[in-house]
Automatic annotation (TrEMBL):
Organism of derivation: Micavibrio aeruginosavorus (strain ARL-13)
InterPro entries referenced in this protein's UniProt entry, alphabetically: Indolamine_dOase, Trp/Indoleamine_2_3_dOase-like
Descriptive protein name: Indoleamine 2,3-dioxygenase family protein
Lineage: Bacteria, Pseudomonadati, Bdellovibrionota, Bdellovibrionia, Bdellovibrionales
Record PANTHER family: INDOLEAMINE 2,3-DIOXYGENASE
Keywords, in A-Z order: Dioxygenase, Iron, Metal-binding, Oxidoreductase
């Protein structure tokens, strides 16, 4: 059986950090980073955020890196990532070079964690929250953002909706190992139980996603949230990428990396892997394959292992069970509904807010992909995987 703990997954939090991130302490050498993170909105408001970030010390990350635990590494990655994004996008023109006082320690940190040196979804969402009441649920009425850019309602709500979605997915993820074992044992009852649990989780996920407009206005998102989470691949403001000053392995050459995007969440790819939902091999599929490398290493491994071990679609199709087919199709429909909602938000939060700006291109998502085509394509492909109900058995 697959063990959730091997993949950094918990039943109550899913892919979210298993730590109380607000309680994570760091050595005093990192105080300047923590203070800059705390006051990042104040620094950005001046219009010359780089002036202040240039003055930060170049911390000897190599001396610390092997003495920091996983929670500390992730907490640092959150703050450094926001600071780096603010440096690149926080003034009128995009920065072409990240100074070595940020670039050198940040790249060492990213390498240790196994991610690229820019803001990933894991640092934007998975590791960037805490509970108000430690005894309460991971829900919108009990969580807050640890690090942000401008500390506004819309920015925080945008992040926190994704946090609760990730938490709600925990029950579905926790059901997968047992479901895979049931498939291997040809245990129809076990498969049915697993699918019921996954369906129940999805019935809670989509209503949370529906709440996005309650606290995140499309205009504010487009103008005050989206500009700072872009990457530097496929972005006309940084056509060749970003130079990481002083990082030997990059030899002074610009590095193109994809920006954080909700498409880096591992929930839907895990469902695709389990359900056997395949996407056609085209440029957009190539983008998704590339995006997979931006996920935390253990989350990537979970998706890969689920895909390798799941024959769910074939099992259900051959079962002759109307109940199994119905459960399978209901889950596919929920995944399709999630993608449909994502498409609707892309239209209202981006296309309708379009303006001429190099740093905030209209037809390119924050990950550097033509998002509307991608979302439409994958929504439609999900629906094409519905299974026909078996014929009713004669009495």
């Amino acid at each position: 059986m697959l063990k959730l703990s091997d993949y950094d997954i918990t039943p109550d939090r899913g892919f979210l950090a298993p730590y109380e991130m607000d309680e994570v302490t760091l050595p005093s050498d990192f105080n300047a980073i923590l203070i800059s993170g705390k006051h990042l909105s104040d620094l950005m408001l001046t219009g010359r955020v780089r002036h202040f970030l240039n003055a930060l010390p170049e911390i000897d990350m190599a001396a610390h890196i092997d003495h920091l635990n996983d929670a500390q590494l992730r907490r640092l990655m959150v703050h450094y990532s926001f600071i780096v994004q603010a440096y690149v996008w926080g003034e009128k023109e995009a920065a072409q070079t990240l100074p070595r006082n940020l670039a050198v320690p940040y790249c060492i940190l990213a390498d240790k964690i196994g991610q690229f040196p820019l803001l990933p979804y894991s640092s934007y969402t998975l590791d960037n929250w805490a509970k108000l009441d430690p005894r309460g649920d991971v829900a919108l009425n009990n969580i807050y953002v640890i690090q942000n850019f401008y500390d506004g309602l819309d920015e925080n709500w945008f992040i926190l909706v994704h946090v609760e979605i990730e938490a709600k997915a925990g029950a579905a993820l926790a059901a997968i190992p047992g479901l895979l074992d049931a498939l291997a044992a040809k245990d129809g009852a076990g498969v049915t139980t697993g699918l019921r649990t996954i369906l129940a989780a999805w019935e809670k996920i989509n209503p949370v996603f529906d709440r996005m407009p309650e606290g995140c206005d499309p205009y504010i998102y487009y103008h005050r949230v989206r500009p700072y989470i872009h990457g530097w691949k496929g972005n006309p403001a940084l056509p060749d990428g970003l130079i990481y000053d002083g990082v030997a392995k990059y030899a002074g050459k610009p590095q193109p990396f994809r920006g954080q995007t909700g498409s880096q969440s591992s929930i839907v790819p895990t469902m695709d892997a389990l359900l056997g939902i395949a996407h056609e091999n085209d440029p957009l599929r190539e983008y998704l394959d590339e995006l997979h490398q931006y996920r935390p290493p253990r989350h990537r491994k979970f998706i890969e292992d689920v895909a390798k071990n799941s024959n769910l679609r074939d099992f259900v199709a051959a079962s002759g069970s109307a109940e199994l087919v119905g459960l399978y199709n209901d889950i596919v429909n929920h995944v399709q509904a999630f993608r449909t909602r994502h498409l609707e938000y892309a239209a209202s939060y981006i296309n309708k807010q379009a303006r001429d700006s190099e740093g905030n291109p209209v037809d390119i998502g924050t990950g550097g992909t033509p998002f509307m085509k991608y979302l439409k394509k994958h929504r439609d492909e999900s629906g094409q995987h519905l299974l026909p109900l078996p014929p009713e058995k004669s009495a």
